[in-house]
Amino acid sequence: MPRGPLFGRRSRAVLAVLAGLHAAFAAAQGTAHQHLRFDRIEATIRIAPDALATRTHRLEATALTREGATEIGRSQIRFNRDVETMTLVEAHTLKADGTRIPVGPDGITAQLGLDLPGAPGISIPGIETRQVIFPDLGPGDRSVLAWEVRRHRPELPGFAQMQALLVPGLEVREARYRIEAPSSLGLAVDVGGMRWTRRSTDGMDVWEIEGTSDGRSTLEPEVADAWLQMPRVLASTFADTAALVAAYALAVDAKAAPTDTTRTLARRIVGDRSTDEAKATAVYDWIRANLRYAAVWNGVDGWVPHDVDAILRNRYGDCKDLTLLMIALLRAVDVEAVPALLDTNAIFTPLPVGIGPNHVIVYLPGLQRFADPTAVDVPFGGLPQAVRDKSVAVALADGARLLRTPAATVSGEHGSTLTVATRWKIGRDGAASATIDLSATGEAGSMVKAALLRAPAGGDATARAILSSSRLEGRGTVDWPTMRDPSQTQRVRLEFSEIRGLLADPQAGSLPAHPLVALPVYILRNLGDQSLDTRRSAMVCPPLRIREAFEVEFDSAFQLRRVPEPIRVSHEDGILFEATYTLAGNRLTGWRELTLDHGRHVCSPEQYAARRPAMQRISLDARRAALRTLSPGTSIRMPGTMRACGASPSSIASCARRACPPDPSGSEHAGSITLRDTAHARRGR
Fold first, then answer.
1. Residue 25 · residue 379 · CB < 8 Å
2. Residue 545 contacts residue 409 (beta carbons within 8 Å)
3. Cα–Cα–Cα angle for 319, 325, 330, rounded to 5 degrees
4. DSSP codes, 197-250
């Protein structure tokens, strides 16, 4: 799968990255301003005619609390020693009374090399990290840091870029950016949410941008195209991503020309296959089976792929390398294939200037098909969810252009579906056992596989973690078949016993018709956030089909008094939900099925408003519960209860009043992870 910013260091969140803040503060929607404040942010980029740039930065931040002092008291500056030179200009603590305390030599340390966060297998030996620790910095004091970076080699010929975003949750009193570039470069600049001016003098274009942030603004839940909602400065020597991919394709074409090595290997791989699709499938499968995702970046390797011979010799590579290899092998057997640039983050709207995406895949014009050779569990013809429904820049023979990758589907060979079959048994003392069988296909199968790879060692440990997250006690095992099969299908069985804590009250109360544990596989966990009356930004809403089949059997000491009614909810925008519930004695059986399939992975604010009533009805039904009481003449005592109630009408009513209502999430034991969360988290590996 795509595994992070594969085209070099990209300081999108300039406050969090350049100031060395913890990611928690960058993501602390509306809380970071309570601990720290940026008084001054300055950044200037001077671009030469050959696209080499000199950047100067200045950051001044005030600690408002001890927590804030901890955050701003330590800053990191990273640069690539292979292609850049960094000069530390100024570093000192400015006390509240005006006293300046310089950072001494012992407060500055250097570390070489970087394993890219969130991208296992990516190492950048040339990255140097300078850590600056400010002395005697407490609440009310200010850290002051200034530095300069000179670039000696562009990422691509003629390519320079700048990206700065004012991250929500951080107060910025003054942000100033200045861009200088020769008019002949035709620099493309996009400014949003800030004031700006432009002037041209003596063949130079100069932009000056100013902005502020009160730190109280937040991003809406599950936001798509978050960059549209933040004050921003984007600049590039390429007018758009199509122009960028055209330049990138030149580097690929030079390395993808057929050679004796690639011709011999490609012919051996394709054998007697004659159609382009059969050849492409064979090459794609061979790369998935014989190469792994890993890379070491030196110099501009974050942008330029390694040579084909080196990739074949090492049998590993990143997305650029594996894409280049697939293109080279296909061209060696006369199948047209070209690179395609896109972003695996929740970015669906094309960026207004040629800013570097973070991933590259293959496009086959003759088949009008995309392929991602890093997606080891996705068969040819499918795509991982992170690259679906995305604006993609493709370097076609007659010119580069913007296309769109296909959205996921819930049907067919690559359909994303989840089936959850659950059987609960609840004993006389309230102890329960459960068996849960999961079956996932398509992108849902890939996400389940990814979750299993991160699971604690051993099925017992995984079961304990699930029960603990569900606020339950008990024992259990989790079993799944080997994941050596390179497909998007995965099965899992979970078996739990001696479960305690499922019933809030031993005598009477409610229990969700389908009791849930902390797994990201249920309908309720994948409806998306519907809490806002209206939205100002688009929302991520990928296609998905989930079917739940459940059986809950109570001991004869209990009686089920009421179960939910069947329901059907539909909406013209690709929403269909059906549920049935059947009561036979002490056994409740039923099923629910949700289909979300409107042909896109993003919903506009208008779509959100139109879909919300239906989604809220579905959410309500997924929370519905069965009402239980004791059977007449029965009294029980569960472990931990102070006394037992009999089954007289008055005692039933009394116990029912004491019964805890169901959790708003639909279970007393709801988790917080969803398949939607998993989909976005796993991308960027």
1. no
2. no
3. 125
4. EEEEETTEEEEEEEEEEES---PPTTBSSGGGGS-EEEEESSSSHHHHHHHHHH
The answer to whether the 14-237 and 417-682 domains have the same CATH topology is no
Neighbour tally for 469: CB within 10 Å: 16
Q: Quick: pLDDT tens for 120-161.
A: 667 788 889 999 999 999 999 999 999 999 999 998 899 999
Query: 325: which 2 tokens?
Result: 């290899």
Boundaries of every domain in the chain: 14-237, 243-404, 417-682
**Residue of 403, 404, 385, 376 whose CA lies nearest to 346:** 385
Q: Which CATH class name applies to 14-237?
A: mainly beta
| 132 close to 91: Cβ distance less than 8 angstroms | yes
Query: Domain 243-404 belongs to what architecture?
Result: Roll (3.10)
The CATH number fitting domain 417-682, selected from 3.30.70.3400, 1.20.1560.10, 2.60.120.1130, 1.10.3720.10: 2.60.120.1130
CA distance linking residue 197 with residue 647, whole number of Å: 79
CB neighbour list of residue 272: distance below 8 Å, 6 or more residues apart: none
Indicate the SS3 state at residue 450: helix
Q: Alpha helices of 499-543 — where are they, by DSSP H? A: none
Q: Which residue has the tokens 């519930």?
A: 581
Pairing of strands 36-47, 161-165: unpaired
Query: How far is the C-alpha of 266 from the C-alpha of 258, rounded, in Å?
Result: 10
What is 19-46 written as a DSSP string?
A: TT--HHHHT-TTTGGGTEEEEEEEEEEE
Q: What is the pLDDT of residues 375-407, one digit of tens each?
A: 988 899 999 889 999 999 999 999 999 999 999
Edge-to-edge strands of the sheet including 161-165?
161-165, 232-236, 188-192
